[in-house]
Amino acid sequence: MIKVTLPDGSIREYEKPVKALQIAQDFDPELAEKSLCAEVNDKLVDITYTIDEDAKINFPTFETDEGKEVYWHSTAHLMAQAVKQLFPSTKLAIGPAIEQGFYYDFDREESFTDEDLQKIEMKMKELIAQSLPYHRTELSKAEAIEIFSEMNETYKLELLEDIPEDEIISSYKQGDFIDLCRGPHLTDTGRIKAIKLLRTSGAYWRGDEKNKMLKRIYGISFPTEKELADYLQFLNEAMQRDHRKLGKDLDLFSINDEVGPGLVLWHPKGAMVRHLIEAYWKEQHLKKGYQLVYTPHIGRASLWETSGHLGFYKENMYSKMDIEGQDYYIKPMNCPFHISIYNSSLHSYRELPIRLAELGTVYRYERSGVLHGLMRVRGFTQDDAHIICTPEQMDSEVEKLIVFSLEMLKAFGFKEFLIYLSTQPEDCVGKKEDWDKATASLAASLEKLGLEYKVDEGGGAFYGPKIDIKIKDALGRAWQCTTIQFDFNEPERFDMTYIGADNTAHRPYMIHRAVLGSVERFFATLLEYHSGNLPLWLAPVQIILIPITDAQIEYTRKIEEQLLEQGFRCEFDARSEKMGYKIRAAEKSKIPFMCIIGKNEEANNQVTLRQHTVGDLGAMNLEEAISILRQKL
RNA sequence: GCCGAUGUAGCUCAAAGGUAGAGCAAUUGAUUUGUAAUCAAUAGGUUGGGGGUUCAAUUCCCUUCAUCGGCUCCA
User: Fold this and answer.
1) A512 is catalytic
2) What are phi and psi of A462, to 5 degrees?
3) Taking the CA atoms of chain A, what radius of gyration do you get in angstroms?
4) CA-based nearest residue to A552, from A627, A612, A509, A603
5) In this predicted model, what pLDDT tens digit does every residue of A171-188 receive, in sequence order?
6) pLDDT (tens digit, 9 = 90+) per residue, A107-165?
7) Closest CA to A536 of A423, A419, A631, A440
8) Contact A107, A211 (CB under 8 A)
9) A424 φ, ψ (degrees, to nearest 5)
10) With A92 labelled, which of A190, A291, A299, A624 sits at a CA distance of 20 to 30 A?
11) How far apart are CA A477 and CA A474, in angstroms?
12) Are A177 and A137 in contact (CB under 8 A)?
């Protein structure tokens, strides 16, 4: 007798071993139709899997992450089959499902062209029409090696080497195509309804740039054409809200060839937004007990030797410059300067924690291929601070910091965050017990605050563990903003001390932290998040004044004066164009409010307000208009 | 840095081995307009840079720079 716990919690008993699919059909025929695989005791298996003992069972559909993963993974196999049929000499590497779709890496001399992709897509559709079953075979390692060496799939053999001798290895076969794979898979290729190959790229074998560069094809698939069309539409919309496009359209910033790649020119409107972000940032930091500092952009080589940057960070630093025979470097980080400020005088434990904050512009070498709009640049401004505290203060400082960071991000409208805790890497400085203590402190704070987070095992900096908070861009790519990092390295190197209650010198703890991360990246994410429709308090131009005819220019000027007096940022469209034209222009430049003034308004001493994307709010007197505006601030 | 694609007017895009064209934006003039484009005229480009092939290159080839999509790395 086998007891099966069904998705709704009920239990059904079977006399004999039974296939998952059968259970699904008995439970809910509609679900059985839609289920892509089975989840037996929290392990994903084929829907054809036979259950021979008591089990808890679930049936993931495409609506679930597990279902999508299986669906896309099977599509990756299908694509590989098509590629092998069209280009038989191609060797297979790996082909997993990813967050949005799947890819497969191939070893082939030639690159895949757009025409190749089309051919592959056509071939995939043929194979879909044949509804080829995905057939699972379990093998010993020796058998697997035999099969894949016969096929000369050297990458698969390399993968096999890493699998322990006694482990059961599985392969999946559909039609004439066989692949080393853990599974599970769909029942057959006919389950895949709508496919699209999206792009090609290069990718190193096993992600290591010392290895051969393979040819990767990315694609996606869906159970219906409609879902595919929706997804392509989403990609299209994402393009519209790309910060690089918005930056150009709204004249916020540019990156100029002659100035240099990765170096940002902030145009007046972008600079206004940045100013507003920074002003808010400063205000908040002062409220939280931070002290503002300013530090130079370059420092002597000896400073960077003391800090250790010339040892461990040299690859990201620009080459030295010579000043009267002395070597100087442009700063990739602000910490040595902040520490120098701390070290400029003696500190008592009573002064701690000391929190030194600076919007510090740093320059880091980034390889040309990684630059990306404002998200990855070579010169950027960190909203940096260093918290120097006693070991006892560490917990409460970390906790305050997490709360503060989330508050700040929420103030700009962000609601969803990805939080990571990165732990001790192999190469690192500091004692293990310090690491454990600091890591535990970070984890404890996150848990105390009830925040969900992922642990990035060994992902810490070499000088300490850290918490990172990431925000997603328009395409769902996550970008790091907040980082809270312990530092066991620099307090030692700079011999930082404070005088304790016992009147002897002690080594303080130091936390590096950036809440927004970099102003450039944060600004970009902010733009994408709001699709360029910045909240009123951040909009570079808040109100555009639109006189309907020249006759109202004088009256409109008076209104403008009063709005400016009230602290609003205004623009005036005095062109001799029709109102509709000016409204269109204002809508396109995403100005939050329009103040439209014709002869009626002037006669009644009123203004007409129109809100961006909302429309006409009607005529009212100026006081009313101002109170509406104030409410939106 | 590596793999691939791209680079034409401020923006979006055409064309083609015989020295480039449109729409929008800009400028000027006319128009004085009631909630997403009034009309006309003008101006704007050594087709990213350098080199080569050719009688002729913006087009073909090489090289270099930059951008885009990834890999790798990170704020």
Assistant:
1) yes
2) -65, -20
3) 30
4) A603
5) 999 999 999 998 899 999
6) 998 889 888 899 999 999 999 999 999 999 998 888 999 999 999 999 999 999 888 88
7) A631
8) no
9) -55, 120
10) A190
11) 7
12) no
What token pair was written down for A375?
A: 């998200």
How do strand A607-611 and strand A593-597 relate by DSSP bridges? antiparallel
Q: Which residues pair with A609 in a beta bridge?
A: A595, A618
Task: Measure CA to C1' and name the residue nearest B33.
Answer: A578
The alpha carbon dihedral of A493, A494, A499, A504 has a sign of positive
| Nearest nucleotide (CA of A381 to C1') | B75
What nucleotide is nearest A204 when CA is compared to C1'? B71
Q: Given A364, A470, A513, A590, which residue is catalytic?
A: A364
Q: Which nucleotide is nearest to A615 (CA to C1')?
A: B35
Distances (CA, A) of A621 to A203, A586, A599: 62, 22, 14
Is A174 annotated in the active site?
no
Instruction: Single out the catalytic residue among A84, A331, A512, A513.
Output: A512
ipTM score for this prediction: 0.94
- Asked whether the CA dihedral A458, A461, A466, A471 is positive or negative, the reply is negative
Does A81 qualify as catalytic in the annotation? no
- Is the per-residue pLDDT at A426 higher than 70? yes
C-alpha distances (whole Å) from A42 to each of A38, A60, A481 are 9, 11, 34
Question: Catalytic one among A156, A191, A355, A386?
Answer: A386
Are residues A173 and A135 in contact, defined by beta-carbon separation less than 8 angstroms? yes
CA to C1' distance (Å), from A256 to B48: 12
**pLDDT 10s digits, A519-569:** 999 999 999 999 999 999 999 999 999 999 999 999 999 999 999 999 999
Provide the CA A564 to C1' B75 distance, Å, integer: 36
Q: Which nucleotide is nearest to A203 (CA to C1')?
A: B71
Token duo for residue A15:
């006399």
Domains, chain A, with CATH or none: 2-58 (3.10.20.30), 67-237 (3.30.980.10), 259-295+333-529 (3.30.930.10), 541-632 (3.40.50.800)
Per DSSP (E only), the strands in A475-542 are 478-487, 498-499, 505-506, 509-518
